[in-house]
Design brief:
This protein has 103 residues and is mostly helical. It has helices spanning 2-7, 15-22, 28-51, 56-80, 84-101.
Length: 103
Amino acid sequence: MASDLEKSDYKEGCPIATTALETAAQSEVLGAATRSTFQKWENEIKRGLEHFGMTAGDAELVATTVLSQLEGALLLARTYRSLEPMHRAEQAMKLLARGRQSE
């Protein structure tokens, strides 16, 4: 994802986020589509976390955090025209995962 962003000269990001921010509030159809897509992504992340032993409640919380972190990092990377926010988001997620493993 980061390499694609860099190759596009920071013009390409998440088309779902852009659609959600720009048009979903004016269109129930687009709003429903963007909500559904984000929910599917969260559910996939949650399933992966559960597969690796995380409880359902923790996995749901962390899945939302991971998706939020990723989307925010994409926004900042495009704004700053730098991959640094993506790298920091990755480091933060690793810290989170290690913290959950030590509990």
